[in-house]
Design brief:
Helix content is 76%, strand content 0%. With 91 residues, the chain is an all-alpha fold.
């Protein structure tokens, strides 16, 4: 297997071209569904907004440490990966 990798080094750029759109589409799909979910559940949006304003405030953008500490935000994002939420029309 190691010999195979060194035998085809020109393949690396093509691998990156395949993974970039997949990551972009996954991120776009997740963000789209989160926005849709929040528009359908204003009580979740209000609680999420309160948590963000309490932790970050109005004067700056959240950084990685802020996001790490925002448990409700992480719960909302992780909840989008529950199959029943992502595929509401399946039986």
């Amino acid at each position: 297997m190691i010999g195979m990798r060194s035998a085809i080094p020109h393949r690396r750029p093509f691998d990156l071209c395949e993974f970039y759109p997949a990551g972009r589409d996954t991120t776009a799909g997740t963000l789209t569904f989160i926005i849709y979910f929040l528009s359908c559940h204003p009580e979740v949006l209000a609680r999420l907004r309160d948590e963000i304003i309490t932790k970050v405030g109005h004067s700056r953008r959240p950084d990685y440490d802020d996001v790490k500490d925002m448990k409700y935000l992480r719960a909302v994002i992780n909840g989008m990966y529950i199959p029943e939420l992502c595929m509401p029309f399946t039986t």
